[in-house]
Description:
By secondary structure, the chain is α+β, with helices and mostly antiparallel strands.
Amino acid sequence: MKRYIVIICICVLVIMMNISIVMANSTYTIELEVTKNTENKSFTLYMLLPQDYIEYAINKAGLDIEYTGAETLKQYDIPLINIDKEKIQNETYSENGIEYVQILLEQNEDSMYIFEIIEDYPDMDMKLRVKNNEKDYIMHIDNFKVKDDVCQIEYNYDKNEIKQPTKITINFGTLLLIIILVFIAIIGIVAKKKGRNE
Length: 198
């Protein structure tokens, strides 16, 4: 019985050490879904990129470009900010002395609004903005989590509430541990029965 446990422990260590090495992506995805728009109101949605974010992308790409607001993204191709230049708004947004360039977002075929963010950018200081003739709502997402290279966001239009969807998931490590514990329990039961029969 002890030999079985030692073998299982060694196998667990080898598996844990060799669990697939996750290659770092250069970006992660923000996915926003608008819910509870009961009157089906039309609105525009913008991603707001702070000046620091744009300058970070410029420096990371090793470019010699000076930040000049929305014109920076319109005039230059910055590798880590891959956006349609026609979606860049001339008007910037300012909050607490920080300037944000506005990028118009449009729904994809899954009715989601998608935007790629530089993965190793240290802050979540970009924002989302919903605007029409009756509201101008800024969504702060600085405390949101990114999981499997995706930051999922739900925006309740009627209540003006933003949150992350609650999903119960079991990661691979936890699932592996449960399987190993069940396996050890089965071996223990079999060994106990075998000991009684002898």
